[in-house]
């Protein structure tokens, strides 16, 4: 079949011409002139009887523009998402340390006190009394939040967390049971004394009032009531102090460094009951006597002298690993 011809829309909607006037007698022999057709309106579009071809022609440029605009927009959205996820300012690790806002951060008076106390007791987890709460700062706040199940949040230059003062014994026991050495920093002056003193414009003076470890916790007057909670072991909580001295010459003419046969002195104290065990003995290269002392007493804390030999230090390390 041949392609259907296109028809002009105006052909179907153009007004009909008026009927010709009746012939006059004078001009009966000559036919009247044909009427002048009116000017057809301007054609703006045409209709095709093959809709599939027309639709494909019209839809093709639109779809091309749509796909091209989509392709252009995807990389920009992807780049924005990647830059937001990789932004170091939103990293959680930045909350566990002082904010790196400037080279010389401006500390509050309380933060300056905390820095001074932390420099004096670097290996102690500090609980600082501030009003009716004990606050943790910096890495201490992260450790307390992990052990106690509390929330740590950034405040000024440090991450901080806090617990109420009337629950001090419970939280200290939890932290000591997790293996931390806990120091309690209390306010050494009241608001009335501070108001009439020379320090009325500065922060409250604070100092270390108590230091708790696994061996000294049961001896504290204000730390009672922990055995029923199962936070510490049910056995003895011995504090063991060990020192050694070479029993023979260091060289013995064999050219081997270190001391092999030593004399070991030890003192073990159970602070909660006041029991004291002390003695000294000669030990061999394997330190079998020292190992027997550790197995019989199971100390929870060990104090070591300034310098010990490598075999003795090895026994200490193995015992600490067993204690956890």
UniProtKB/TrEMBL annotation:
This is DNA mismatch repair protein MSH3. GO terms for cellular component: nucleus. Residues 108-218 form the DNA mismatch repair protein MutS-like N-terminal domain. One of its GO terms (molecular function) is ATP-dependent DNA damage sensor activity. Gene3D superfamilies: DNA repair protein MutS, domain I, MutS, connector domain. InterPro entries: DNA_mismatch_repair_MutS-lik_N, DNA_mismatch_repair_MutS_N, DNA_mmatch_repair_MutS_con_dom, MutS, MutS_con_dom_sf. The keyword Cytoplasm does not apply. Residues 1-107 are annotated as: Disordered. Residues 39-56, 83-102 have a biased composition (Low complexity). One of its GO terms (biological process) is mitotic recombination. Residues 259-313 form the DNA mismatch repair protein MutS connector domain. Residues 15-38 have a biased composition (Pro residues). Keywords: ATP-binding, DNA damage, DNA repair, DNA-binding, Nucleotide-binding. It comes from the Eukaryota. The keyword Protein biosynthesis does not apply. Pfam families: MutS_I, MutS_II. Belongs to the DNA mismatch repair MutS family. MSH3 subfamily.
